[in-house]
Write a structure and sequence with these properties.
The complex is a heterodimer of chains A (about 450) and B (about 450). In chain A, strands 12-11-10-13-14 form a 5-stranded parallel sheet, sandwiched between helices. In chain A, strands 3-2-4-5 form a 4-stranded parallel sheet, sandwiched between helices. Chain A has a 4-stranded parallel sheet with strand order 7-6-8-9, with helices on both faces. The two termini of chain A are about 35 Å apart. In chain A, about 45% of the residues lie in helices and about 15% in strands. Chain A has 18 helices and 14 strands. Among the domains of chain A are: about 120 residues, 3-Layer(aba) Sandwich (Rossmann fold), CATH 3.40.50; about 140 residues, Nitrogenase molybdenum iron protein domain (Rossmann fold), CATH 3.40.50.1980. In chain A, helix 14 packs parallel to helix 15. With about 450 residues, chain B is an alpha/beta fold. Chain B folds into 3 domains: about 120 residues, 3-Layer(aba) Sandwich (Rossmann fold); about 130 residues, Rossmann fold; about 110 residues, 3-Layer(aba) Sandwich (Rossmann fold). Classes of the chains: A alpha/beta (about 450), B alpha/beta (about 450). Chains A and B meet through strand 1, helix 2, strand 3, helix 3 and helix 4 of A and helix 1, helix 2, strand 3, helix 3 and helix 4 of B. Strand 1 of chain A pairs antiparallel with strand 3 of chain B.
């Protein structure tokens, strides 16, 4: 493995986002939920704009809009006022309250404020159907947005899940996947005859149809009653190699209710998807339904048809850890050569996971970089001479400067259309990504040749 | 209707025609109301951002820098340092032990790497709380590196966007007066409050140059540190936009006796009026300037009007809603819509003053809704009530319009089409036309339920 680039104190062109943004995304995947940021007004607005530019969907995030007085005397009164105003206008079933660096730094005890609020406004809450109030600590100065995402899901499960009755379903914690992927995931589960609660479920809330009126809270999302029943479910399945072994929703359910937990990588590529389907076969007791077996078969067929276009092509993958691990797995199994994998965040599992998905196929492991920005990536990349970049759209400058094509995957995709409808997981996602990769390389060859091949 | 409006916000909404004009504004946003506003930091960042040869370092946790990376379409004719996003990415230990050392090291490192002409260091929420002495660090780095390093007091929670404008103006004012002004013509101006979105300031500069007016400094679109340093040598400050740079103009008037005038480059009337007023200012010393300006306007209009006509024919009688950051832009938009035959049914802004809203009241038609610091629930209900054909706003307003089957025009800082100047009016008309006249609305559920013309429209396609 090569020595990593010189370490800089400053960050240039960050490869991560801040923690509360992830919490807001996760909360959006719960039915009747409004995300609420306890902090200054700007945080909510900036994150809304950032998320809207990817999904092209309304994304209302409430804020306690703290001013100077609150910063000195505490944000409790504004938090309570904000919650009342929000309930009056939005009538949420649940409010997901995430803290920000401001409220963490001034030492606001957000959970205590919420407890006080529930006592002080009992009648008011009764009138509004007793919405759930879930808090999560997400100071931006510690961790990145995926940690905020997981923390929010974890808070919801810790607060709401009970095991009052045995329910005939499984819990699925997919991490941050696209609405299209979420719909597909639910389709797979249904085809296996499994009832499932997917949390979060952004399949409808962040990809809604055109409407006759404005929905205050978009329809869809994981149902509260299903989340409450999670403790009595048959098992939990959790995606993401980066979070295995850490404090996760699945682990909470395991510890509290001794519920079996199946952890798998985010199922990107053939092998990672196979592992997920094995879990589904075990849980359902039936073999993979023919429809999916055929999709798998067609995927393998296409791997064969396309293998020569991609063999030995050098790739750089960057972005959120579990997407990066999955993409790396797909590239390696198709014969490509990841030369650098990079993420703006960090996890004790990341390097091992990368080596794990490379081992057995790749002779030389890629350079692995954690906690990096795009400046670090750019410095490292020059000597590697990649043929392809894969990651979110924030690498577009790098792609242009180096004249290397970029395939946009993950979040955010701000400079292309339909990123939230992109399939990345399962056999269908692998097919989509492989087609994209092969075509990008073919186009490169066609464009850079004077001959202008008509058949490639 | 009433149910979407917060009682506390009643006085921030006025319906023209009901009663005499009276409105509350310039207030903190209501907690829980999903305001479309950002924060103090945002105000400072948008004003200073286009200075292309400066280092813009955000001192704080990563979010503030990440969300403002290359966010504006502010173009540069030379260096593009402003398009990179620099942060100290404060971590927990910095919050506990202070971030001054990290800030110092980051500044030295980045200045050595990029050799900028100057640096702005933006304070964020927690920097205001942990008490880092930004001023002291900036002074030290400035002495060691020999370039101006200027702190921007933009802690997010210390007011609203307007406070951020003020902090940016104070930062700019530290530069003004430090450059050489020997070679500046008496017929000279600074352009304030234009951010060169989609190259707009180049259009405006060209008009002024054709009039024989020297432009000393762009403040801040396509801006340069050295130009701003000598901007006190100009004879006049020409200030656009609602307040983003007006504080700087006032400071320069007090300190250097430079008068200022407020202008707008949006729409034909305001564009022409702006050029005439500048010409008039210099007409004592330059007797031909007014003739040159008339000639310019005449030529531009002769080209523009025939081209506008085809759009006007299609758009006549259609209805528009406007919700923008600054109210000053809204004045011009109301007039611009009139020019292409459209009626404005709703107009609002994030940061307007009472004076701004009074002017909007004066220039709009009876029945128009005027709104300050609005939110998605109000805006969506107004759009439906007024049944408009287009909504003008920014990215956050776009999904509100589209979900409801209403056209949209981005008039915010992310726009990619130049909308200023005479040519900008044509671009504006073309963009409005491209969304209002699109056939896709016939499939939109709201339009279908409204007109019950589903089958008819199906037959039509």
């Amino acid at each position: 493995m090569k020595a990593l680039a010189e370490h800089f104190v400053s960050t240039t062109n960050s490869c991560k986002l801040c923690k509360p943004l992830g919490a807001c995304l996760a909360f959006r995947g719960i039915e009747g939920c409004v995300p609420f940021l306890h902090g200054s007004q700007g945080c909510a607005t900036y994150m809304r704009r950032y998320i809207i530019s990817h999904f092209r969907e309304p994304m209302d995030i409430a804020s306690s809009s703290l001013g100077e007085k609150s910063a000195i005397y505490g944000g409790g009164p504004n938090l309570k006022l904000g919650l009342r105003n929000l309930m009056n206008k939005y009538n949420p079933q649940i409010v997901g309250i995430a803290t920000t660096c401001l409220t963490e730094t001034i030492g606001d005890d957000t959970s205590r404020y919420v407890t006080e609020f529930c006592q002080e406004f009992e009648e008011f809450l009764n009138f509004h159907g007793r919405p759930e109030l879930v808090t999560v600590s997400t100071p931006s100065y510690s961790g990145s947005y995926m940690e905020g995402f997981h923390a929010a899901v974890e808070s919801v499960v810790a607060k709401l899940a009970k095991n009052e009755a045995v329910v005939d379903s499984v819990n699925l914690f997919p991490g941050f996947i696209s609405p299209a992927d979420t719909r597909y995931l639910k389709e797979i589960l249904a085809d296996f005859g499994l009832k499932a609660t997917v949390l979060p479920d952004i399949s409808e809330t962040l990809d809604a149809p055109a409407l006759a009126g404005y929905e205050k809270i978009p329809a869809g999302g994981a149902r509260l009653n299903d989340i409450r029943a999670m403790g009595g479910a048959l098992a939990s399945v959790e995606f993401g190699r980066s979070i295995i072994g850490s404090h996760t929703p699945g682990n909470i359910l395991l510890q509290k209710f001794h519920q079996p937990l199946y952890s798998s990588g985010t199922p990107i590529g053939l092998q990672e998807t196979d592992r997920f389907f094995e879990i589904l076969e075990k849980l359902s007791g039936i073999p993979t339904p023919e429809k999916h077996a055929l999709e798998r078969g067609r995927l393998v067929d296409s791997y064969i048809d396309g293998h020569k276009y991609v063999f030995g092509q050098k790739a750089v993958i960057y972005g959120e850890m579990d997407i990066v691990i999955g993409i790396t797995s797909l590239l390696v199994e198709t014969g490509m050569k990841p030369v650098l994998v990079a993420t703006g965040s960090s996890s004790k599992n990341f390097r091992n996971a990368i080596e794990d998905v490379c081992s057995g196929i790749l002779e030389e492991f890629p350079v692995v970089m954690e906690d990096v920005d795009f400046f670090d990536i750019a410095s490292e990349i020059k000597s590697l001479e990649p043929n392809l970049l894969l990651g979110n759209s924030k690498g577009h400058r790098l792609s242009k400067e180096m004249d290397v094509p970029l395939i946009r995957v993950g979040f955010p995709i701000h400079d292309r259309f339909g990123g939230h409808r992109q399939f990345s997981i399962g056999y269908r996602g692998a097919q989509n990504l492989f087609d994209l990769i092969v075509n990008t390389l073919i186009q490169r060859k066609q464009d850079s040749s004077d001959i202008g091949y008509g058949y490639i | 209707m009433g149910s979407t409006i917060f009682e506390e916000r009643d006085r921030q909404i006025h319906r023209k025609g009901d009663e005499p004009f009276s409105m509350d504004c310039d207030m903190p946003s209501l907690a829980g109301a999903v305001s479309q506003r950002a924060c103090v930091f945002c105000g400072s960042r948008v004003v200073l951002y286009p200075i292309a040869d400066a280092l813009h370092l955000v001192h704080g946790p990563i979010g503030c820098a990440a969300y403002t990376w290359d966010i504006r379409g502010a173009l540069s004719s030379g260096p593009e340092l402003h398009r990179l996003s620099f942060s100290t990415d404060l971590q927990e230990k910095d919050v506990i032990f202070g971030g001054e050392k990290k800030l110092y090291q980051a500044l030295i490192e980045l200045i050595n790497r990029h050799s900028p002409k100057g640096a702005f260091v933006y304070s964020t929420c927690i920097v205001g709380i942990i008490g880092d002495d930004l001023g002291a660090v900036c002074r030290r780095v400035s002495e060691e590196t020999g370039i101006p390093v200027i702190p921007v007091q933009s802690e997010g929670f210390k007011g609203n966007k307007r406070a951020g404008y003020n902090a940016a103006c104070k930062a700019l004012f530290e530069l003004v007066g430090t450059g050489v002004i020997d070679d500046i013509s008496p017929v000279s101006i600074n352009i304030l409050g234009d951010f060169n979105l989609a190259g707009e300031i180049w259009i405006i500069r060209e008009y002024f140059e054709r009039m024989g007016v020297q432009v000393v400094a762009n403040i801040t679109g396509d801006g340069r540190i050295d130009d701003i340093k000598r901007s006190h040598g100009a004879s006049l400050n020409v200030v656009q936009c609602s307040g983003s740079t007006i504080d700087l103009a006032i400071m320069m008037e007090r300190q250097y006796g430079i008068p200022f005038m407020r202008v707008s480059y949006f729409g034909v009337e305001d564009m022409a009026e702006s050029l005439y007023r500048v010409a008039n200012f210099f007409s004592d010393g330059d007797t031909d300037i007014m003739d040159r300006t008339r000639e310019l306007v005449r030529n531009e209009l002769a080209q523009l009007y025939p081209l506008l006509e085809k759009y006007r024919k299609d758009l006549m009688g259609k209805k528009a809603a406007i919700y923008v950051g600054g109210a000053f832009k809204a004045f011009s938009l109301v007039k611009a819509f009139r020019l292409i035959g459209m009626d404005v049914a709703l107009v609002g802004s994030q940061t307007g003053t009472e004076e701004d809203y009074r002017e909007l009241y004066d220039i709009t038609d009876p029945g128009t809704i005027i709104v300050d610091d609005s939110n998605p629930l109000e805006l969506s209900s107004f759009l439906q009530e007024k049944d408009v054909d287009i909504f003008v706003g920014g990215v956050k307003e776009r999904p509100i319009a589209y979900k409801l089957g209403v056209g949209f025009c981005d008039h915010n800082h992310e726009r990619k089409e130049a909308l200023e100047g005479f040519v900008g009016m044509l671009n504006f008309a073309r963009e409005v036309h491209s969304t209002v006249m699109s056939p896709v609305w016939r499939f939109s559920p709201r339009r279908i339920s409204q007109h019950s013309s589903y089958e008819l429209s199906l037959k039509a396609v």
